[in-house]
Amino acid sequence: MQRRFLGPKASFTRSELRYLTEVDGCDHFALVAVLSEGADAGRVVGVARFVRLPEDPITAEMAIVVADHLQGEGLGSLLADELVEAALARGVTRFSATMLSDNYAVQRLLSRISRSLQRRNGGRGQQELLAELAAA
Fold this sequence. Notes:
The chain is an alpha+beta fold and 136 residues long. It has one domain: 3-Layer(aba) Sandwich (Aminopeptidase), CATH 3.40.630. Helix content is 27%, strand content 39%. The chain contains four helices and six strands, in the order ααβββαβαββ. The protein has a six-stranded mixed β-sheet. A hairpin with a 2-residue loop joins strand 2 and strand 3 (56-66). The radius of gyration is 15 Å and the shape is globular. The relative contact order is 0.15.
């Protein structure tokens, strides 16, 4: 949670819950990875989303969250590839992401899915990446 929200997050406000759960499939798109077998079948283990920026409709803020026990196993990459396909199909050609500066896994992932990558220092140990999307 700290890497996704840039700090500890014990609970969500109503506004935050609405933002995270009310998707329209076009300007706010989300993918969910669910376990299909075993005792934990049906358990959500990953979420990828983008939200189009109203002031720049070809750019969307993106985020990917993967359950701790599955990090480094390729699920984030799979979700990222699917998210890029969905974004391009909806006219989004650029992802923006704000993260902790030491979140090297997401930096590598964004480098992999983009034609070009711009970095901006966000201060307080944060950075913003702007990725021009490359078709898979």
